[in-house]
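As described in the Methods, two query proteins were run sequentially through the folding procedure within a single session, without resetting any intermediate state between them. The first query and its resulting structure tokens are shown here.
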Amino acid sequence: MGWLDTQRPKSVLYVSFGSVAVMTRDQFTEFWHGLVDSGKPFLWAIRPNLIVDDNGPNITTLDELKAATPMRGLIVGWAPQEDVLAHDAVGGFLTHSGWNSTLESMTAGKPMICWPAIADQQVNSRCVSHMWKVGLDMKDICERSTVEKMVRHLMESGREELLRSTEEIARLARESVREGGSSHRNLEKLIEDIKVGTFL
């Protein structure tokens, strides 16, 4: 978090692909080059088993890239995601678009670049980009030029429009969990149903 404190507001792209999604070494290299080529500072949380190839997990790349990245960003093994997304320095999130990450990003008011891999991630990514308009959908494309283009769009040319949408979604999310909000009422109703046994 100390590194984020030294960055300008909304200037950093946070990158994390969750706890299950994996990528090949080539995909990883394309993402890294795209991030570096974008010229935008980034914080990338890379768990040890993210990168796999024909020989199984490959964790040596983390040390290699840590050495090559200091002028452009920061690579860490883990980051407190909700705290990172809430930080003023973070202006966007490159994600696998898992449901928890999607909700955390929307609640924090941060636009997303989605690279979905499995399960519900394709649907989540489509909702983020086409329904809620709070991010961009990379689909399954993993080329450095595409990564660079999308990062620049998120952090520069499309920033204002995406921020308007994400800030509105974040406002609605906060209202829903306040006392009297829709989520608050639904939780109270669930608790009441459990107490009286009407949920059976």
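Immediately afterward, the second query was submitted; its sequence and tokens are:
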Amino acid sequence: MLTNPFSRPTRTIILLVIFLLVGMYFYRPVHQVPRAFPHLDTHTLHHYLNRSEHVQRPLALMAKLQKHLQHTDCVPETKVVSSITHHYRTETKTNTVVSTMTQTALLQPTCDANIDAPKVTKEDATPEQLTVAKLRDEGIIIIFKAGAQEVSHLAIQVGTTLRYLSSHDILFFSDQQGSIGPFLINDALRNVDQKLKNDHPDFEIYRQIKKYQSTGQDILELQEDKKKGDGRSGWKLDKYKFIHMIEETFEMRPDAKWYVFIETDSYVFWDNLAEWLKRLDSKKPWYIGSEVSSNGVSFAHGGSGYILSNAAMNKLLGPEQPQGLAASWDSRMKDVPYGDLALAMALKEKGVPLTVGHPLLNGYKPSTFTYGLNNHWCQPVVTMHHVVPHEVSSVWRYERQREQLGMANTTLFADLYSHFVEPHLVNARDNWDNLSHGPTYSQQLVDELKKQQADVEKKKEDEEKKRKEKEEKEKAKENKLKSTQVKNALEINTHGAKNEIEPTPKNVQDPKDEKPKQETMGKEDQTGKEPMKAVMDESNLEAKKADAQPDDAETEESKKLDLKDVKGIDVGEDDVEGEDEKSKDAHEKDAGKEARKEDVKREDAGNSDDNESAKTNPADDLSPASHNDLSGLSKRGDPPKPRIAQQQHAHESFEKCGEACEEEAGCFQWVYYSKTCKLGSTFRLGKYVKPSDDGKVVWKSG
């Protein structure tokens, strides 16, 4: 029997397949297959073309925005000049087209930073806004100098300390033209002699910056290591900016009363600055700064900030002065190490001397300020230096907290100590340098001082021995002379008695001729037996005494000079014994001045936080005061011994260094590293110092 190909199971399967295919066709994703020519909806198109919102809505929005930004130049002023309506009529529909003409004002070269700063009364203004008003009332212009690689660091300043200042209040100068927020950055080197910029090696970094800028590369890649200090290319280039920056500033703001020049890592207390300059006369030639010196010339340290009055600027660059000052200095800069030194020299040539503004203008910050006895606790702070971005934020927030607490008084050094230093003081801290300044002790220095003491003591013993031998010889000579005189007197008396009894024979010599006879006998005795020195010494005694007197004086004087040449040793002379306290205080003050000068040099070198200082010779940091503190002789002849016995062992451990500080009068803190102990007669918070790669040099502060 033949089988039916369309049997029940087969038929069922075929029907299911057909059903699935039909279902897939009707429910296929049509949206994924767009039409090449979509159907034109005439009603929707007519509604879109005839609506008026596409014109009125932007105009209303712009008017609202213009009203909101009426106090700024950032948005151009837009006015509707004319509006023409055209009507097109067809059989069934009317189309309306509105044509609008507008007139746009030209943009200003720069925009004000105070986007949302409407004019407010003094009652409504914040203390920060009132401070900015004070700066404007006093005619103060702020000038920032920054390196091209440091411009990004200005962002924190623009967002905090400069947020209410406009482009009329502040100018920026750098190695390249650019901008930061709403402010324009001027190229301070654009007017330097072109041949100098093309050929001089100091401008190599400037040529690289221009190349990076033209090719869109990141200039931060040119940033150099701070460990190089003065050897950095940017540091060599920096000195050419100063006088050109001064000249361009005066061209752009000739009517300002005060010109305040600061750097990227400077911080300014604006209220203190305004209150200070209010007390000075801008019509007098003021050149104010924190004094440092080089080659015998005093100048204002650029990082600490310096101030020029309008009168000083006119003396330097006024219409009555020869033009082209900056250009004339381009050729001279190769012989000047610093730009701020060149500025001081230029001002000095015009008869404008430096006025010292320290400690108001300061090269330190809260962690490096020197705190101690008579250290400006109640002095106001105007500027600080080496302030990194996160510290700028911290100090700015501290100022705002003072405002909220109603503390309208001047910010003092004591205020910064209470907020930034005192809460962080601990008994001991690892990997930390508290920047102690004072006597330094190490094994090398102790050995050196012991050797100096031994040499001085040996010299004194030799001189004492020679003196005693000389005294003994002189005594022997005097005794012989006396015995000779007695003998002669006896002989004279004997001969006188004989003359009274009997006449003198012809062959007997007169007593007056006895002395020449004895001299003759002495000469004859020299051929054989001992010479008669007493007779010879008698004739030369007075001459020898006269010669001996100046010799003794010279010996005593040379003794003083030799002993004084040895540092730190109490010479113990009768006339210089027991140095008084006043001379010691003066000596310590001189040592402190030297330490402050050394700090300024360290800060100009970059104030790097590396371990290079651990590699330096501790003897280089030793001040004369440290030698005096180590040892001293109370009396002549006493054995040399340290004034404080513990100081001999201060370099052996951190604990012994602390014991030496406890025994040292006026010691506040100490730091120990690499078998070296430094005591501090003042104290600082200090900075972090990472240990050496081998872990052998670890700084520890107490």
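The mean pLDDT is 71. We note this only descriptively and draw no conclusion about the first query from it.
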